[in-house]
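RETRY 2/3 - previous attempt timed out on the joint model. Re-submitting the same 310-residue input unchanged.
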Amino acid sequence: MRYQDTKISLFPVGAKQAFHLLRPLPARLPKRAKHDKTVLSPLRKLLSFAKLMMFIAVILILPSQTCFAEGVAEPVCIQCHSKLPEKYSKPVELWRGSIHAENGIFCNGCHGGDPKDAAVAMDPAHGFLGVPKETAIPAFCGRCHVGVMKDYLKSAHGRMLGKGGPTCVTCHSNHHVVKATLDLISEKNCSRCHSFERAGLIQGAMKETETMIISIDGRIGSLKKIGADTDKLEKELFAARNSFHSMFHNVNVELFKKESAQITADLKKIKAALDRKDAANQKRKIAGVAVVLFLLLIAVVLHLFKKTYD
Ligand code: HEC
Ligand code: HEC
Ligand code: HEC
Ligand code: HEC
Ligand code: HEC
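RETRY 2/3 succeeded.
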């Protein structure tokens, strides 16, 4: 699936072997032969020359192999569509700036088809799905985003699919899909079909939780920098963040209140653990200063003691 994988061949076996061949010859010869210089010398020169030629040949072949690997990286869909009129080339341009392009999901990841053979690329017999109808879009995206699709289909939005409810592309677009953030919830995006009131409630609560997550993340980061063991806290935050980000598609204010109460409780627990760690560090610091002061005091006393008896 991931065409980028073909780039692994950038450093072919041939190059490794060539470097091996360049190692000084005597080191690899049987010991007895090494002493027999008269017989070996011309032969050795000839061998070294042949190996040098082989090495040069490998170096010359390398660049063309690299080009080949990069050529394979882009499916035929992109090569052909880039040259087509606007309606058919625009998707390529939009897709290039998407999170899907970044993660190696090409045209055929969504539309199906054969990414290697231009002649049959758009043949349904080769898995080409074409352009999905509006009601087919959730399943189209949901092949990969299974959890999101399930939440969406159960939601007020999913239940109104094909009857005025938004689909995945209403909110995320089709080709310029970028990393999802709470900025998607806005007056502009969410008041096209109904009032912003309920959307605003969700937005407010989510922003609050998001701020909490960012602050905790920062504190864990600083603790990590001074060498503290933060593995457990990191895992807990990761879990809380995951359930937080999978909440939105329900668009159910009641469910939302319940779930976000649970997540907030989990986050508060992490925060309390951080407070304890910080307090312990503070105590350790104070103890450290006290020890230093005590040692200084002893030194001064000893010094005075010595002086009086000198
Ligand atoms: C050799 C050129 C060529 C290749 C290769 C190619 N396409 Fe197309 N594609 C076209 C042309 C021309 C059209 C517009 C006419 C048509 O629908 O057949 C098109 C149309 C489309 C459409 C819109 C179809 C519709 O019903 O409106 C999609 C989606 C699409 N291509 C996806 C792909 C995908 C995915 C691949 C690779 C697996 C691919 N194409 C490979 C030339 C190509
Ligand atoms: C993330 C999934 C996804 C990827 C990746 C993707 N498409 Fe699409 N594409 C869609 C969806 C969904 C539609 C239908 C959109 C709609 O109805 O709003 C669509 C529609 C199209 C159309 C019909 C014209 C249009 O803009 O509505 C063409 C042509 C097309 N895609 C070509 C491509 C090409 C070429 C690529 C690769 C550069 C590509 N798509 C990559 C999801 C995708
Ligand atoms: C072939 C599998 C595949 C299909 C089909 C697909 N995606 Fe994705 N999508 C991915 C991958 C892989 C990522 C990047 C990793 C991640 O964040 O999950 C991603 C990321 C995303 C993100 C960003 C997630 C984040 O973390 O912020 C959104 C939003 C998204 N996709 C929406 C869509 C939409 C909308 C469609 C349909 C038009 C779609 N995807 C179709 C595989 C797919
Ligand atoms: C394409 C139209 C459309 C867009 C855009 C849209 N919605 Fe909706 N929304 C609906 C429909 C239809 C319903 C179901 C009928 C209703 O409750 O009004 C709904 C219901 C809701 C509900 C009530 C759910 C419940 O269970 O009571 C919330 C909350 C909501 N939408 C939030 C949002 C948010 C947030 C956005 C923006 C990110 C948004 N909507 C964008 C059409 C839309
Ligand atoms: C009403 C607008 C709306 C609709 C419809 C919608 N999304 Fe989203 N999506 C969002 C918002 C807003 C977020 C960001 C939530 C957050 O940051 O917690 C999001 C987040 C995501 C993410 C990232 C989730 C994560 O765990 O980080 C993915 C993937 C995604 N959506 C895919 C889809 C797919 C697939 C569909 C269709 C089945 C869909 N979305 C339908 C608005 C929408």
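Residues 1-40, 56-72 have pLDDT under 50 and may be disordered. Closing ticket.
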